[in-house]
Structures are given as C-alpha cells and as structure tokens.
C-alpha cells in the first residue's frame, strides 16, 4: 500500500497510465462498497460508488485533474458539472489546467436557481456566447443528472457536445447521451472497478 506522500509524488510525476492505475485503486479502496443500496435514480443496486471519497482527497483530485484535462478537446473553453458531485472534479481540472499553461475556467451548475441576487443557475465566470463547454460527472447511471447540466448550460447560450465521467455504471447512461447527440467518455467502466476489487480481495 502506498503512503499518501508516495501517491502524491506518483500523481505529480508519473505518466498518465500510471496515474490512471493509481486512481483506479483509489476508487476501489475508498469509493466502492458492496451491499444493498438505493441510488439517486431510484434503482436498487448491490454496490455503490461514493465518488466524493476520492474526488475530495488531494491525490485523487490531482489525478483526476491530470487525466480529465488530457481527455478534453483542444478547443474546450470551460468545464462544468452539476452540483454537488461534479464540484471538486471541475475545480481539479481547472487548477491543473493552469499549471499546464492551458487555463480552463470551471462552472458549477445549480440544481435550483439561486434564491437571491441574480437567481442564476450557473456559478463561475461569464463566458462568450457559444463558448464550448464540456460537462464532467463522477458516476453515470441513467445519465439524467449530467443532462440537466447540459440543458442549463445550453440555455445560457453555451455549446455543449460532450460529457466525460469518472465511472460508467453501464446502466443506460451512454446510450442516453448518444440519443441526445452527445459524445460520451468514461475513465472507468464498472466492470473494471469490480474486477480490480475482486483481485484486491483475493490478495488479502
């Protein structure tokens, strides 16, 4: 087991394939649980992934920032996501982008309009009309959560053509995005996480 300091050095200096493996292990060790759960979609599941257990760690955020930044189209003008799950993800990507001399601002999409002031759905810098925004998500099940972010961003005049997730549960989200004309990518499939979990359990 790597110490936190060893993990941080790896995420800072390693190539993307090594960082991806480290992030996979973080998801297996910290975020993935087996049992009886009810998901936000209302579906029951024999496993649950709490992405915030990884996205809110220092090494997890740094790994996510580096990996997702490498997946963004060159013309990306902003990253955005629906609060709360996507908040640390878009922030991580934005911070890493500054270090990579490719500064990309982050937007946070509210589920409900702000109850005071501007009463806006979006938090973050105002972008030019038609700015190209990529929506980020932690775990995709049906795809409806990130789609709400897409709709809010488009209503604000931004161009959204792609969704990138950390984990795809393979329960219809990818197909839903395709039906909406959106490109979809995920860092990990649920099969990969479950296989790694089983491998680690056998090694104990």
Describe this entry's structure for a reader.
The protein is α/β, with parallel strands linked by helices and 204 residues long. Helix content is 44%, strand content 25%. The protein has 8 helices and 8 strands, in the order H-H-E-E-H-H-E-H-E-E-E-H-E-H-E-H. The longest helix is centred in the first third of the chain and has 16 residues, at 16-31. Its cofactor is Mg(2+). 5-phospho-alpha-D-ribose 1-diphosphate binds at residues 110-111, 114, 116, 137-145. Catalyzes the transfer of a ribosyl phosphate group from 5-phosphoribose 1-diphosphate to orotate, leading to the formation of orotidine monophosphate (OMP).
Question: What order do the helices and strands come in, and which of them pair?
Answer:
Blueprint (H helix, E strand, L loop, with lengths): L3 H10 L2 H16 E7 L5 E6 L2 H4 L2 H14 L6 E5 L4 H13 L6 E4 L12 E2 L8 E9 L3 H12 L3 E10 L4 H7 L3 E7 H14 L1
Parallel strand pairs: 3-4, 3-6, 6-7, 7-8
Antiparallel strand pairs: 1-2, 4-5
Helix pairs in contact: 1-4, 2-4, 2-8, 4-5
């Amino acid at each position: 087991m790597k110490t936190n300091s060893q993990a941080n050095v790896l995420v800072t200096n390693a190539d993307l394939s090594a960082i991806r493996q480290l992030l996979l292990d973080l998801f297996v060790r910290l975020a993935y649980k087996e049992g009886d759960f009810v998901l936000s979609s209302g579906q029951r599941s024999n496993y649950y992934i709490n992405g915030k257990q990884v996205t809110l760690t220092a090494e997890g955020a740094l790994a996510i920032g580096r990996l997702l930044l490498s997946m963004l189209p060159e013309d990306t003008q902003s990253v955005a996501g629906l609060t709360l799950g996507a908040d640390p993800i878009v922030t991580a990507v934005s911070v890493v982008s500054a270090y990579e001399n490719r500064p990309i601002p982050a937007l946070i999409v509210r589920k409900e309009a702000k109850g005071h002031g501007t009463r806006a759905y979006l938090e973050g810098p105002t972008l030019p009309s038609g700015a190209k925004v990529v929506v980020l998500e932690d775990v995709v099940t049906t795809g409806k959560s990130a789609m709400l972010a897409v709709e809010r961003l488009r209503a604000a005049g931004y161009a959204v053509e792609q969704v990138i997730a950390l984990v795809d549960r393979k329960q219809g989200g990818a197909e839903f995005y395709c039906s909406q004309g959106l490109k979809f990518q995920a860092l990990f499939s649920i099969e990969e996480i479950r296989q790694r979990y089983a491998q680690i359990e056998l090694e104990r």
